[in-house]
Structures are given as structure tokens and as C-alpha cells.
Amino acid sequence: MFKKGIKVVLSAALGFGLLAGCSSGEKEQSDFIGDQVKYEIIGIDPGAGLMEATEKVLKEYELTDWKLIEGSDTAMTASLEKAYKEKKPIIITGWTPHWKFAKYDLKYLEDPKGVYGADEEIHTIVRKGLKEDDPAAYEFLDRFEWTPADMEKVMVDVYEGMKPEEAAAKWVEENADKVEAWIKDVPQADGKKLKLAYVAWDSEIASTNVVMHVLESKLGYKVEGLQVEAAPMWVGVANGDVDAIVAAWLPTTHQRHFETHKDKIEDLGPNLIGTKLGLVVPSYVDINSIEDLKKK
Fold this sequence. Notes:
By secondary structure, this protein is α/β, with parallel strands linked by helices. It folds into 2 domains: 36-118 and 278-293, 3-Layer(aba) Sandwich (D-Maltodextrin-Binding Protein, domain 2); 121-274, Dipeptide-binding Protein, domain 3 (Roll), CATH 3.10.105. Helices cover 47% and strands 19% of the residues. The chain contains 13 helices and 10 strands. The protein has helices spanning 2-28, 33-36, 49-60, 73-85, 99-103, 130-133, 135-143, 148-159, 164-174, 176-183, 202-217, 230-239, 255-261, and strands spanning 40-42, 67-69, 92-96, 106-108, 121-127, 193-198, 222-227, 244-250, 265-273, 276-282. The radius of gyration is 25 Å and the shape is elongated. Keywords: Cell membrane, Membrane, Signal, Transport.
């Protein structure tokens, strides 16, 4: 009886301790999003316009406790994938079009101060003199345009394991009418060389590979694709070392580069309309505005 009584008392004490521990843990678990994500916003390449805009967001909304983590598109989406699988909160810098919106249920945080600006466009930029040196390439590049839905189809195929050039070829084959409008009456190049530059974003990998595939398979060009950071991409086309880019996000993301080089390039206008920039969270995260990041 005595020994049994000790067991009962010990069991009760242990049970109370466990309950007390749980209760203490629950108290320590903050409901504030900043505490949950360690006041970190997962970003992309340092120097990208989206990163610069996000730094402005932190200042405008007085989010002095928050840190913008530099990395890459790949690192950002890897962090998102891990958090999403575990249903953990995460805040990332995001843009549309991107395959992540087709794969995950995400939402943009409202930006009531309009720091990120209006929706952007993706422009085609060519070097000075391309029209005179290669009117056929110029004509095709001037005609090239597609939609966010078109781009996302290529991006999803790449994400699911297809090589970018294979995904581009698949899209071109499945969208023959659209491609025909780009190349109608454009003369064959017979092996003439072109250089295109692009940043290592899923969106620009998709668009540039589609353009390269059409130039090579439909118009007979030999195209070299150069994957670089944003600054050298713009410098290359401004210096004439690169013939064109179809990856210029304006007026926000690449604004600084455009302003620096605008007198040395030719802007052929948008090839895609309907992009968006901002802070993005999974839909299960219970915040809706950038203002929700400020502790009250």
C-alpha cells in the first residue's frame, strides 16, 4: 500500500509537471507573425529591384525589427516548399508570373502605401543598331509577346523536371498559331549568330528559352544564351556585347538599370503584361497586410 501510494503521488506530480510544462510552452508561443518567423523575410538576389523595393517597404512601414534575407530564387522557393509542407509560417518576396502560385495556395500581402507600385510589365530590350544589322531578328523580337498563363505553363514543366529547352519546345509545338504570328514573313537567318542574356529567374529562363527555340528551330539562327546577374545583363545589351534581352521588368524591378542605360539601348515595349511584386505568404498564414508585420 505504501509503495503504491508513492507511485500514485509521483504519477500525479509528473502529470502536473507535464501539464505545467505544456501550459508554459503555450504561453511562450507568440501569436505575432514576427516572433513566429524570427522577423525574417526570405528574399532573392542581392541588388534585384524587388529587393530594393522591399528595403523601401521596411522603411516606409517602419519595420525596424525585420531583416530581409538575401539569397536566390532557388533558395527562396526551397524555403517556401519546406515551410509549406510543414504548415509553418513564412514570408517571402514574390512576383507573378511564377510557378509557385500554380503549385501552392499563396496570397500577396496588401500594400496600402503603394510602395511596390503598380503592376509591372516585362519588356524586350535590344542593343542600338540591331534593326540595321539584323532586321529579321529585330522584327521577330518586336513581335514577341505572350501571357502570364503561357509563361507559367513552361515554368511548371521545368519545375516538374523537364529541361528548360524541352519545356520551351513543348510550348512552341502546342502554340503553333501564336508562334506563327511572331514569325510570319520573317526571313530565314541561315545560321546567323545572336546573343541573348537573361537572369536566372524561373520566369526569364522560361521566356528566353522559348525565344531561343523559335529563333533556332523556326528562323535558322544560332543563339547563345548567357545567364547572368541583372546588372551585367543590362550592361551587356547597352555595350552591344548582347543583342537582346526579353527579361526587363519595368518600371520597378529594373528601374535603376533602365535609367542608367536608357540612352544606349532600344526598348521594344512589353512582351508580357500583368506582373505583380510584393510580399507573399501561404494562405494559411493569418495576416493580410504589410501593416500586420508591425507589432502593436
